[in-house]
Amino acid sequence: MNRPLLDVTSLAKSFGGRKVLDGVDFSVSPGELVAFLGANGSGKSTTLRCVMGITEADAGTIKLGGQDLGLLQGKSLQQARRRAAMIFQKIHLVPRRTALENVCTGALARMSTGRSLSPLFFPDDILQEAMDCLDRVGLADRAHDRVSRLSGGQQQRVAVARALCQRADVVLADEPVSALDPHAAEQVMQLLAGLAHEHGLAVAAVLHQPDLALRHADRAIGLLGGRLVFDSPVSSLGAADLDHLYAPDRMAAA
Ligand SMILES: Nc1ncnc2c1ncn2[C@@H]1O[C@H](COP(=O)(O)OP(=O)(O)OP(=O)(O)O)[C@@H](O)[C@H]1O
């Protein structure tokens, strides 16, 4: 087994005295697509947000590419965090800009200040890299279209291309397909699986559709009330595991 690119231990978080993550441990290795499953409010998004530093964890260790983020600060922390990119259900792109311009912004953080002052005038090397990233998500022919003219599924693929242009090797996706129709959802899931299986990225995706997890993920992590209740290869997941997550009262009554 490869060394994990993302390794999380004893992650804990409370909001207003209410524990929403209670000692969550998991890892994601290069080449793996891991699905996070769980009912509303079970802590899936908070887990990903803590990894990204969008939400500050109360306790726990987060290692990205072997580096313990808790031991880093300033520029070295920023640099270590750049290995991870997050994509969201509500796609955060600039609608009036082209797909290519949006993808280029993935490179902003690693450009020198002088070069990044004019984000809409990207140098040729970045434009070329962004084109390559769009090509990888199958949208090179739409590079010069405004994002507002693309479908939801295409926009989500542009968001994935932007993560690639950031050169992230850990991609965290929070309900990436919840707003998409079944065909577009399938395409985005195939793309995420391809990033893991063909390009060796570590991918974790929060999914509300267990069938998508069963079809595309290698492993599924189940959260219930902020606790991890299983972490298993999808091939060994059964109906009882899913009932445990989505109908715990029924399980208790059985
Ligand atoms: N900023 C916040 N302030 C207060 N409570 C929060 C905050 N963010 C999340 N919570 C609470 O933490 C719990 C876990 O939320 P989280 O969004 O992680 O769940 P989730 O499993 O992703 O749910 P969903 O499937 O509905 O998106 C919920 O009870 C939620 O209300």
From TrEMBL:
GO molecular function, one term: ATP binding
Annotated protein name in UniProt: Phosphonate ABC transporter ATP-binding protein
Signal peptide: none
Residue ranges of domain ABC transporter in the record: 6-250
Keywords (A to Z) from UniProt: ATP-binding, Cell membrane, Membrane, Nucleotide-binding, Translocase, Transport
Source organism, top-level taxon: Bacteria
Record organism: Arthrobacter horti
Coiled-coil ranges from the UniProt annotation: none
Matches recorded under Pfam families: ABC_tran
Lineage: Bacteria, Bacillati, Actinomycetota, Actinomycetes, Micrococcales
